[in-house]
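Subject: Sanity check before I submit

Could someone independently write out the structure tokens for this chain? I want to compare against mine line by line before I put it in a report. The sequence has 202 residues.
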Amino acid sequence: MIEHAPWIGMNYEIGIKGQRICIVGYSHHHSGPDRENFTKDIVCDFISGELKRNSFFPPVKGYFRIPDDATFWNRVMFFNFLPDCIGDGDHRYAAGGTKQITRARERFLRIIREAKPNLEKVFVFTTKGWRDFPRTIEEVSGKGKIPLGTEFPEFSWGTYAAGDHTVMAFGLRHPQGALGEVMKSAVRQILDKPFKDTLLLH
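---
Independent answer below. Compare away.
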């Protein structure tokens, strides 16, 4: 069964503002044969200019206020929540099936656990995907996800145990139709939020 390997930029260890981060979207839509390196190939095509039109990569980079495509995407990890492609055309905005979402949850936890050096923050740019993510430490404890702030009523966050450390994950929305200034402000607040390994606090 096909499972897309995540893109890990050559400067992932340097990160953004000294933080090792991951960008998560929802899915790739494609009508042709699927392959393990699909995500890696798409990012390479975008950086090289071969991928001319895309509603995800340009605005996400802009939220971090880094003007150069190669600089930004080479400093992050990226993958989509669903582990393989959704069909094109009428299916491009479809949600994953039950089995696909189960695989997606397992894959997400495995990726954040195996990322080296340790991942610190995950930016989830999909409301649909964030709803289907594995339960956070806070949700398991009965507290629920944490609101990002009164100025961002739709956004929330939580933490995940990833082996011997904790990863902070922030649920935002897909860039398509989003207000750019709101998204930039949310990203800035997240980057400014101190990273704390809270695993022992729960």
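---
OP: Matches mine. For the report I'm noting this point. The chain has a mean pLDDT of 91.
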